[in-house]
Structures are given as C-alpha cells and as structure tokens.
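Notes from the 1:1 (GR / supervisor)

We went over the backlog. Supervisor wanted to see one worked example end to end before approving the batch request, so GR pasted a single chain during the call. The sequence is below; no edits were made to it. Supervisor asked that the structure be written out right there so they could see what the output format looks like.
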Amino acid sequence: MKRLAFLFTGVVVFCLSAGATTLSIYEIQYTTTADGTSSWNMQKVNCAGGIVIHKWSGGRQRVVLYDPNNAAGWGGIVAKADVGTYPFNTVNLGDWVALDNVTVYDWNNKSRGNTTLYLDGTSIVRVVSTGNPLPQPLVVDVNDVAVVYDTVYETCFVTDHRAEKYEAMYIQVRNVSVGDVNVGKSLDNYSLGTDADPNIYCWGSDYMNINKPSGLMHLPVVASGQHFCSVSGIFEQYTDTAAGWDYYQILTTADDDLLIEQPGDLDEDCDVDFADMAILSRYWLVGTK
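Structure output shown during the call:
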C-alpha cells in the first residue's frame, strides 16, 4: 500500500491507497542469486524500515537502517536521496524510520551492487519512534568478507557473494593488521589481514567516517603494519565489473571503530578485565625488597 500524507489544521493524516508493496528490510535484501541482486530491483516499494545507525551527507544524503529482528544477516539497508534534496535533515541516530514510495536499485550504474532505497519527490520519510538503542557490531571472520586484489592489473573481486547478507550491517573483524593502503577504485581502501594468515584479508575505508580530517584519505591511525584489536563499520558493496571491481568494504563511522591495544591489556586479548587484574596481582611487588 502507498501511504499519502495530507495536512489538515495542523494534523497529519495518512491515507492508504493501492500501490507499492510494504516490505521489511529482510524481504528487500534477502536473495539467493549468485551476484546478490535483490528480487525487488527497480521496483517501487514501501519499506517498514529500521533504526538509523549512520547518517551521511557527502554527495547524496543517505542513512543506514538496521532491523534488529535480523541481527545475524539481511538486516541492513541504505537509503539515498536525490542529489540536492535533504529529506533526512530531521532524522537522528536511534530513530526508527519507515519509507514510503521508494525505488529499490541493485544494479551497477545506479547503486554499484549495493541494495539501495532511492527517494524522489514522491517519497515519504516517517519517524516511527525515537531513542532506540544502536546495535553492537556483528563479529564476523575475515575469511567470510575477504577480497582478492590483483596488484598487477589493479583489480579486485570477491570469489563469491556469500557476504551479501552482511550488506549495510554494522560488522566487526578482530585481530587484524593493515597491509596495503591507498588501493581500490578511489584509492581510499586499505587491506586488513589476519594475524594467522596475512594473505587472507578484507578491505576497509574511512570515507564515511565523521572524524576523518578533511583532505586525508584515511584516519591518521591507519598505516601499513598497524595492528588493530578490532575494526568495525558499515559493510558496503561496490561493483563495476567493466572497470575490474566487485568487492565489499568495511566503512568505519567514527574514531572508536578502530580499536588499538589498550594500556593494561596484559594478556593481549584486546580488552582490560579481571583476567588482566589476575596477571597484575600475580606479579605485584615481584622483584621489590
């Protein structure tokens, strides 16, 4: 059903009329196709929506929506506005936002493989509730989101699209180190390799990070050889097969998405807890007289 809004004496009245189908994020995102394309590609829908977990106004204004009912996968989606329009100006992190009369795009030239809800002049943004808790990142194995970069031909492909279920979700990889920097389509990517096998790695990027200094490609802490206890961010696909690109990347959102070893982490497990206190107490006053 398409929802139309009319204003009478200061009261907003929503009327239902035949039109777009109302779908959850899961119903729009879930697919069994080999390339990860949504079955709703290029169709008008109403989206029941989700919690705003990130907001970005670089280029097209966009928000990332998360449905906690699908926390293990297929629970995130990106919504973008027409160039020069700002329908999300009054939308805040933690708002549950529903969208009416939006077009699903999931093809190369429009969304570069990233399932996206596009808003136009007929679309309606509805804040259903506010103050919803933001999710903790979903921890995934680097191997499940890995890419293959050809340094000779400067192309990058995934071996398959099994990572599609994480698209637009807030995910985290742990115990990784930075390898190559300034790679990818816009030279803004960096590889994050596992400590066990540096040949298995995924890609990160800071282009949607609200704390990235202007004029820099990455946060200052990102440098080849830097080890992170964890890296978190929004998972995004980028596909342009004609140019040699078909990959996923973790888009950090703020400084604290990149966690370095903390002072007091004596057991080197990337947190400070009672296990570290036990080590400290074991060696307390050792060597003193």
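Supervisor's comment: Residues 1-18 have pLDDT under 50 and may be disordered.
Batch request approved.
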